Amino acid sequence: RLSCIRNNIWLASCGVVSAGLAVLSSFGLMLYCGVPFVVTVANAPFLILGVGVDDMFIMIACWEKSARENKKLDTKDQMAETYAEAAVSVTITTLTDVLAFFIGTWTAFPSVRSFCLYTGTAFIFCYIYTMTFFGAVLVLNHKREERNQHWLTCMPVKTGKDKTSKSCLYNACCIGSCSSESSESESEHLMSKFFKSHYGPFFTNKWVKLFVVLLYGAYLASSLYGCTQIREGIDLRNLASDDSYVIPYYDDDDKYFSEYGPRVMVVITESVEYWNQSVRMAIENCMQSLE
């Protein structure tokens, strides 16, 4: 927004901070519990940032919608309406994400198991911080707007009817436009108008709904078939960088030695009398039996 009062730069920044706090809390808890940190876990913050920013947008949209539809609401009632609408979608999103990643902890691969544990726990913390920390930030930002304070300096923004009292540069920096009047009311966002006036009515058409049901049925059938074709496994090449010596090593190993299978070693952990011929014969017989 161009308005220096209704600008939400700090609000968006706090939404990113909320996701960062979730990552720190998750990593700290998992490390404290002794869960090993593997290199794949380093990708988890990007996933948490995506979900955290999405939850932030939902909270802000519901907050502004309640304020636009009923301007007489006090802060407590507006917060209640925001949570009543936003918390449902945020909760469902979090539950599905957490369930998906915690199911991934059943895998036999320790690196994947650690990644799923770190990420699933981070989603839980992200939900907690969104419902608590970011909600408090919403209220603080609302109080700043009510007091007509600048988004950066938090100094009161004085507006008057006389356009000549201040220069155009001053009005643009401290109000948001060359006009010396600050717009208190705000029209509905273009994206909201599009979904309400065009997208929603299009998908409520009976033929479109029938097409969507058929399309989803085809998608579900192909997904079930794909689940029957999945085989558990992992390609070790994917765990190394593209220029690593590991990749040509595995390529040559598959090309020249795949028919032999893995190398088997036998280790004797006890002290034995190697100088005794009968002991040596017993070891040889053991090796032949294993072969």
TrEMBL record:
Keyword Membrane: yes
Protein localization: Membrane
InterPro entries: Patched_domain-protein, PTHD_SSD, SSD
Protein keywords: Glycoprotein, Membrane, Transmembrane, Transmembrane helix
Entry GO CC: membrane
Stretches assigned to the SSD domain: 1-140
Position of the signal peptide: none
Top-rank lineage group of the source organism: Eukaryota
Pfam families tied to this protein: Patched (PF02460)
Main location: membrane
TM ranges: 9-32, 44-63, 83-109, 115-140
UniProt topology in membrane: Multi-pass membrane protein
Family: Belongs to the patched family.
Protein name per Swiss-Prot or TrEMBL: PTHD3 protein
Gene name of the record: Ptchd3
